[in-house]
Amino acid sequence: MIQKSINAFTLLELLVVIGIISVIATIGIPAFNNYQIKAKISAAKSNHVNLVTFTKAQAIRCTNSLDIELNGTTGRANLFKCGSPKASIANFRLAINHHVYGSFKNPFPPSNGSRCRPNVDNCQPPGYLNGCSISGRDRYGMMGIIVSSPYEITICTNIGPTNLPSSATGEVLIDKIRFIYSD
Description:
Blueprint lengths: L10 H53 L4 E4 L5 E4 L8 H15 L16 E3 L4 E2 L14 E7 L2 E9 L10 E8 L5
Antiparallel strand pairs: 1-2, 3-4, 5-6, 6-7
C-alpha cells in the first residue's frame, strides 16, 4: 500500500501568519489615517491659497472697472459688472461667495449634513458664513469671506487639525485683501 503525503499548513504556521498580519494592521491603519488627514489639510490649504489668489485677481479687475465672470451657486458663469451702480464691496463678497459655493468642495466630510459646501451653514438657500468664527472640529475645511472694512475683504479657512491624530479646534488661515473699491 502506497501512502500519500498531504501538504498543508500546520496550525502553528497559520497562527504565526495571523499574528504577523495583525501587527502590520496595527501599525498600518493609524498611519494610513494620518496620511488621509494630511491630504485633507493640504487640500484645505490649497483651497485657501486658490481663493485668495482668485479674489485678489478679481479685486484688481474690479478696481479697474472691468467686468468679471464668476461661477454662480449652480456652477454656471455669471457676470459681475464692477462699474455698475449696484457694484459694492458687499455685492463683490456675495459674488465671491456664490463662486466658492459653485466651485469649491470641502475636503473634510461634514459632520452636519447641511454643510454641503465649505462656505455655508445651510445648503438651500445658501446661508453664507458671516465671519471667521470657524474654529472647531465640525468646521474643518470651512471658509469665511467677510467685508472687514470699506476697502478690505478677509478670507479665513479652517485647514484642519494642528496636531495629529486630531485637534479640537483646527488651525485657521487668515488673509486680508485690500483694494480701492468703495460702496
